[in-house]
Amino acid sequence: MIRVSVDPAPIELAVEVAALEERGAGGIATFTGVVRGDDGVTALELEHYPGMTEQALIAIAEAATERWSLLGVTMVHRVGVMLPGERIVFIGTAAHHRREALDACAYLIDRLKTDAPFWKREQTGEDARWVEARAGDVEASGRWNEAENQPFSD
Amino acid sequence: MDLLYFAWVRERIGTGQEQRDPPEAVVNVADLIDWLATLSPGHAEAMAEPARLRAAIDQKFVALDAPLGSAREVAIFPPVTGG
User: CB-CB: which of A47, A116, A134 is closest to B6?
Assistant: First the structure.
């Protein structure tokens, strides 16, 4: 019921959602991250730590299945070069009820941001720069430690 | 031990992977960073600000004061920015 993928191939939403629907869930929640084209960004390159990345995603997914009653978890992250408008990450959860699916989906993307070894490099015309980590991402991930049963209390 | 570098750490050093045998006095990740900084101008540039670095020992995130123990693979990289 856990599917983790780190792949240069485009993310196929319909395929991923259909696989979650086959789990017999009453609710499917999904998050899709898309490469932004603001600030003149012409391309985004994703580097990762092969081997560790997959283990980290599985660990995050397993933590979610211990915390919520889930029928399916999907975490797909693209790597390599992608263009504005292309999907970079897909998170999907299947559960009997919406609350589990929605909370687990938010947890998974928040944790992925701080606990999985990916690095973004933005290309803007001829210039390229590594994206700096955001303090807000650490806060968003950390809130799941503080409020065990009230994930949205802040 | 096998050393892996990612993102701008890799670019500054000029390679993503190398094998090194640090001296016995190098007992934790912070010591390793200080020692690596002495190896070449590229290493020195990559390791110049330890506060901007993160590490993993045998593919688990660790703090910079984590002991190296019998680590086989140590990775040094900037804070992660996926998703």
Answer: A47
- The pTM of this model reads 0.92
Going by C-alpha positions, the residue among A138, A70, A136, A77 that lies closest to residue A104 is A70
DSSP characters for A39-89? GG--EEEEEE-TTHHHHHHHHHHHHHHHHS--SEEEEEEE-EEE-TTSEEE
All residues at 6 or more sequence positions from A30 whose CB lies less than 8 Å from its CB, including other chains: A13, A16, A17, A20, A90, A91, A92, A93, A105
pLDDT surpassing 90 at residue A17: yes
Closest-CA residue of chain A to B54: A117
Which residues from chain A sit within 8 angstroms of residue B61, using beta carbons? Answer: 115
| ipTM higher than the 0.90 cut | yes
Q: For residue B26, is pLDDT > 70? A: yes
Q: Do B81 and A47 touch (CB under 8 A)?
A: no
